[in-house]
Amino acid sequence: MNKQLSVKGLQISVASVLVAVAMQSHAGNFSQDKLPKEVQVPAGHMVAMYTKAEGNITWECKTDADNAEKAKWAFAGPRAILSDKKGNQLVSYFGPPATWESVDGSSITGTQLAVSPSAKGSIPMQLVQANKSERPGALEGVTYVQRINLNGGAAPESGCTTDLIGHKVVVNYSGDYLFWKAK
Known about the structure:
By secondary structure, this protein is mainly beta. It is built from 1 helix and 8 strands, in the order αββββββββ. It has an 8-stranded antiparallel barrel with strand order 1-2-3-4-5-6-7-8. The relative contact order is 0.23.
């Protein structure tokens, strides 16, 4: 039994080292100059981790809150794997609520502060203020999460009618997630 515990502890240590190395490769090395002001992280923060996301967004056909005789697609939740530039998984993203969980066990949730349009057919860029991680690790101390460089994920343009209330559609997307910490 002691061997199993030490092996598991070693696996956690290796995961923590991989995340730490990935964080160092992009730390502070990012300019927001070309991003819309709405999704820029306030001064006094630096990039702690830069990840590439591959995942999907689930949309559910629901009754339109403004008109009960109509239906529209509503955001039902994300699921994505966030990896370093070599393709090593660093973080899982899922929800609701929006949750980012590192391979080392640290995790954060957050509150959306702003969005800005992306390319047609893509979910918007986003700025999220992170809640404190309850566990030590790579996401400990993250203050903001920024979603940029998006491709896909937007709700379908058609197909949601009152006859299809409850129907779900999964749409693939990719993009970049930057995790920021105070300097």
